[in-house]
Amino acid sequence: MDAESLLLSLELASGSGQGLSPDRRASLLTSLMLVKRDYRYDRVLFWGRILGLVADYYIAQGLSEDQLAPRKTLYSLNCMEWSLLPPATDEMMVQTSVVKGRFTGDPSHEYEHTELQKVNDGEKVFEEEVVVQIKEETRLVSIIDQIDKAVSVIPRGALFKTPFGPVHVNRTFEGLSLSQAKKLSSYFHFREPVELKNKTLLEKADLDPSLDFLDSLEHDIPKGSWSIQMERGNALVVLRSLLWPGLTFFHAPRTKNCGYIYVGTGEKNIDLPFML
Amino acid sequence: MEDLTSLKQEDNQEPEEAEQPWEEITAASSQDPVPGLPEPLESEQGPETGLQPGSSPPQSSQSRTSTPLNDLTGLGASSPPSFPQEPTSTPSTLALARQDLWSPWKSDKTTSVIPEARTAHSNHLEQSSDKGESAPHQKCQSEGNTFQQSQQTKHHLHEPKDASHNNSKLKELRLDIFQEEDSNSNYDLDHPEPGTSEVTPNMLEIAIQNAKAYLLKTSSKSGLNLYDHLSNMLTKILDERPENAVDIIENISQDVKMAHFSKKLDTLQNEYEMLPIYETAEKQKALFLQGNLEGADQELEDEIAENSLPNVMESAFYFEQAGVGLGTDETYRIFLALKQLTDAHPIQRCRFWGKILGLEMNYIVAEVEFREGEDEEEMEEEDVTEERDNGDSEADEDDEDELPKSLYKAPQAIPKEESRTGANKYVYFVCNEPGGPWVKLPSVTPAQIVIARKIKKFFTGRLDTPIISYPPFPGNESNYLRAQIARISAGTHVSPLGFYQFGEEEGEEEEEVEGGRESFEENPDFEGIQVTDLVESLSNWVHHVQHILPQGRCNWFNPVQKNEEEEEEEDEEKEEEEKEEPDYIGQEVGPPLLTPISEDLEIQNIPPWTTRLSSNLIPQYAIAVLRSNLWPGAYAFSNGKKFENFYIGWGHKYSPDSYTPPVPPPVYQEYPSGPEITEMDDPSVEEEQAFRAAQAAAELAAEENEETEEDEDEEDEYD
User: pTM for this one?
Assistant: First the structure.
C-alpha cells in the first residue's frame, strides 16, 4: 500500500484482522517519508509484516518511475530504522527452499541445513554431509520475492505502459466498476508478465496493449486460490490469497484506493489443494 | 448559438478585466500566433477602440444582471472559474471586439434569460437566426472569429457543457449558417478591409471553412465527429487541470469517448449496482435503531443491571495496541449486533469470540452462555433421530437373513458431552456480517472433533456446505466450524494466573475426579500481575478451557467394549503426540484445568506462544500480548488486571510439515479363513493328466477285479 495513503489503506485492509498498532502506524508515517527522501524513490510502499518468533519484520519497498522495474526492499524491526536488503537471485531461492518453519525474528540468525554432497577425492566419489548455513536475511529476501511474484495484485487500468517501455501509474484511473470489481480477470499480477505470450491470437486481439500487459489472476493455479469478497455492502472488494495466507488486497470500486498488504508468517500454504 | 453564449459569458465574467488597459490587450494581440487573420484583428480593434469606452458602461451594468445568466446558462458547467484565469490574450480581445457588436442582443437577452436558461438559449438561437439574415456581416465575422477560436480551441469549452443537450440543434444551426454563408455571395464584404485584399482572405476563408467542415464530418462508425470530440476533451482537461496532461491525453480521449456512450444507461446501471450497498446499509441501520425502540426507563435500568454484554470496544482498544483488530467502525457494528443477540435470547454471558475468514463470506463468532434451563430443546430432537436409525437397520437385516451376516461391529459411538460441560460448555452463535441474522451452532460431538483433527478444509461462509473429505466428516460446515471453534478455544484460551480459581465446592483435592475439575470462578482477590512478568514468563498464564482428549471429549468416557476402542485410541494418541500433550494409554488424561501454558509442548523447536509487550517505547502503559504459534491468529492480551482472548484467522492449526491425508484402514476380515472358502489354484495341465491317469489306473484295477465275474460285458463297456 502506498505510504501516502497509509492510514486509509490500513483502515480498508482491516477486515483481515491483522493491522498495525498505533505506535507502529505513527512511526511508519514518519519514517517512510524519510526513506523516500533519503533513497529518492518515486513511491514507497508499505509491503507488510512478517511475524517472527521473537520479533516481527516490517517490510517496505521503494519503486522508481518505472513501476515494473526491480524494487528495492527494506526491512526494519522497529519501523524507524530501515535497512536495505540485497536483491533476490535465483541462487538464493534454491538455497532457501530447504528451510522450513517460522522466521525467528533475528536477522543474524542462521539456519543450518545438512546436505549430502558428492565429493570427488581422486577417483573415489563419496558423499559427505555438509552443513550449509543460510542466513535469515537471505531467507527473508527470497520469501518476499516469492510472495511478490506469486500474489502481488494490481487492478486493471491502474498502470499503463508507455510506448517507450516504462510503466507508469495511470492518473486517469478512476477505479473499477462494480461489475468489473467482482471478476478475477480485472486484477493483474504486479510483476513481469509470464503467461502473456501463451495467449491465443484471438485473445490478444481484444487486449489493449497499454493496459493489458500483465498476467491476470484468472488463470492462477490452483483454481480457486483467491478468495474474493465484498465487504461493507459493495463498497469494498477484498481479495485474499489462499496460497500465501496473510496477503490481503483491497480496492474501493469507483475510487482510486487500492493496495495490498501481507501480514503473516511468511510460509506458503502447500496444503492448499487439500483444503479447497 | 453556442458561440454567442460562450462569448457572452466571457464578457459577463470579465467586465473588469476587459476594462483593463487596452495596451496589454493590443500587445497580446500583436503576439497572436493565429495565422490567417492577423490583419482583420487589428483592423477590428481600430474602429472598435472608439466604440469600446462607450460599450463598457453598459457592459458593467449588465455584468451584474447577467450573473444569473451565468448561473442558469452554466447548467452545471464549471467554466466560471476557468475564465478569469485566462490570460488576456487575443481571444478576449475578440470577445471585447464583439461585445459592442452584440450589445443590442445582450440587452434583449438579459431580460429574457432569467426565467429559464433553455428558453434563453432558444431565444438566442432565434435572435441569432433572425438577425442572421439581416446581418450576415456580423455573423460571418463571428464565424471567422469563432473559427479563429477553434484554432485556439479553448473557447469551445462552453459548447458541450452548456448546450450538450442542444448539441444537435446547434450543430444544425451552425451548418445552416455555413450554408447561408456559402450561398451568400456577399460574405467577403464582411471584412472591414480595403477591397484589394479581398481575394486572399477569400481563399483563406474557404480553406478554413473547408477544414472545419472536415472536422465536423460525422464518423460513419461511431456517429461522433472530431470537432465535438476535441471540444469535449479540451473541456474536460480545462475543468480538471491534470498535471502533465500531454502525457495522458490518449487516456483522456478514451475516457471521453466511453463517457459519451455510457450516459444513456446511467440510471439503469446505477440502480442495479447500488442495491446491495443499500441493503446492507439498511440492515446496519436497523442495528443502530434497535436501541430506540425500548424507551422505558425501567428497561434501561434492567439492561444496565444485566450486564451480559461485554465491553467490546474496550477489548478492541487493547487489541489495537497489539496490532490486532477489525477497525473501529466494524467493531462497533459487531458490538451492536451482539447487543441484538443478547436482547433476542436469554443470555447470561456473552463474549465476542472472534472472526473466522471464509472463501465467500466470513463468520463472526459470539460465545454465549445461556441462563439456566434455557437450552434443552436440542436434546430431544437428537434422540428421535437416533431411534429412527436403529429401526431402519433392523429392517434391512431381516431381508438379508440368508446372506452371511457381517460380524463387523462399529465401535460404539462415544456420546457427546452434555451441554454446559466440557467441549459444549458454551454455545456459539455466528453471523456473516454485523446486522445479519445470528445462527446457533449445534453442539459438538467427539466424533466430529476427532475427524476435524484429521482434515484441513477452508470454510466457504455458508453453513450448510457439505464437507467432502477423507475421513468423511460427520456433518456439514456448521459442525466443522463448531469443532474448530472448540479446538481453538481449548488450545488458546488463556488467562493470567490467579484470575480464575477453582470453586471450593468441588470437594477436596484428594478425590480423583475423572477428567479433572471442571468449574472455576473468578477470583475476587485477584491483585493483578505485572505486565513485564506476564511477558517474561509463560507460567503466569493458564488455560481456562478444558483440554480436549484424543477421544474428542474433555471428560473421559469409558466405552463398554474396551479392547477395540483402546487400540484405536492408542493409534490416535500416537498420531497426535507431536502436536498435543502426551496421554497415557488406558484412561486418557489431559492436563487439568488451569495448568500454566509453559507446559504446552513445542512444535519442532518452535515455542507454542510468543509474548510481546505492545510498545517498547512507552513501557509503563504497555500491555502484554500473547500470540499463539500453534493456532495462528489466536491472541490474548492482559494489562495486569484485565484480559481477553480473541481469534482472527482461517481456523486452521499450524504445522510445519505439510498435511498428509490419513491412510484408509486395512480391509476388514469379514469371514474367517477356512478350507471351504479359501481359494485354491486350479490344477495345471500336468496335474490334471496325472490325476486322470491315477484315476484310470484305479478304475482299471477295480475292473480287473470284476473281470473274472463278467467277461462278456466288460469288453463292451471299455469302449
Answer: 0.66
